[in-house]
Design brief:
flat; mainly alpha
């Protein structure tokens, strides 16, 4: 058996021609015909969703324990997400406005750029602290508690 027989597409370019002709027919239907491609894609998406709902039924076994909504919310890290979203949005806004709508030295560019960069730095620091936070809290607690002779681990973990 040769490798050529294992190809899933034929050697001709008929599938490319059919796709090009279909897209050309959709766009040339009327002056705003290119907008019809959205509806074609929406139909394909709907067929995909219906197919998944009808035929895809995976097993529901999970290694994760059941969590309350509060634990699920905090597992998504809302503080870090807020720092990241605010920083990214403000930086993109400032870069979009810079040189076009406003000059680079204008307050409408400098303020969002500065706040966005500070927010992204806060995001990086928060990510580093929250990842290593328990270890640092344990070390600080132990140093403070050694003087009092209390159990360090029981204070941090409780």
């Amino acid at each position: 058996m040769s490798n050529n027989s294992l190809q899933c597409w034929p050697k001709t370019d008929q599938h490319r021609r059919v796709g090009s002709l279909g897209a050309g027919a959709a766009t040339n239907a009327n002056p705003a015909g290119w907008r019809n491609i959205f509806w074609i894609q929406a139909g394909f998406f709907a067929l995909t969703v219906l197919g998944l709902l009808a035929f895809y039924h995976p097993k529901r076994e999970s290694d994760f324990p059941r969590m309350s909504w509060k634990k699920v919310l905090w597992a998504c890290d809302p503080i870090g997400s807020l720092f990241f979203i605010v920083g990214t949005t403000l930086n993109l806004l400032a870069l979009d406005w810079a040189g076009g709508v406003y000059p680079w030295h204008d307050k409408h560019v400098v303020a969002p750029l500065t706040i966005g960069l500070v927010s992204l730095i806060a995001f990086a620091l928060y990510g580093e602290i929250s990842a290593e936070g328990f270890r640092w809290m344990w070390l600080i607690c132990c140093r403070m508690e050694r003087k009092r002779r209390w159990s360090c681990r029981s204070r941090v973990l409780s």
